[in-house]
């Protein structure tokens, strides 16, 4: 037989834990709703700092003296020697294909022709 005191000693803490967890879950929902409904305090905005204008400096542009361009001696254009044309071996010719005699065309049997006027059935319901 089952010992009744052992079952109750096991079930009582389980039931207490379930009860406490359901109670704490409800308080979490209330706290979350409270956080959603409360407004955040406004944070004051600081003015943007402005820098004083910097003085403009007018510097004279440096002038470089013009250098004389050196004269290059004219070089003769190089000439390339002509390349010799290679001598290619002659390609052997294939022998001509033998001529076959013409074969006579076979004659096909003629099919009987159908009459042009085909009789039709006059009764609409056959």
TrEMBL record:
Positions with biased composition (Basic and acidic residues): 58-74
Compositionally biased intervals (Pro residues): 44-55
Record-annotated membrane-spanning stretches: 6-25
InterPro entries on file: PELPK1_2
Region (Disordered) residue spans: 42-126
Annotated keywords: Membrane, Transmembrane, Transmembrane helix
This protein's record includes keyword Membrane: yes
Domain of life: Eukaryota
Full protein name: Uncharacterized protein
Origin species: Acer negundo (Box elder)
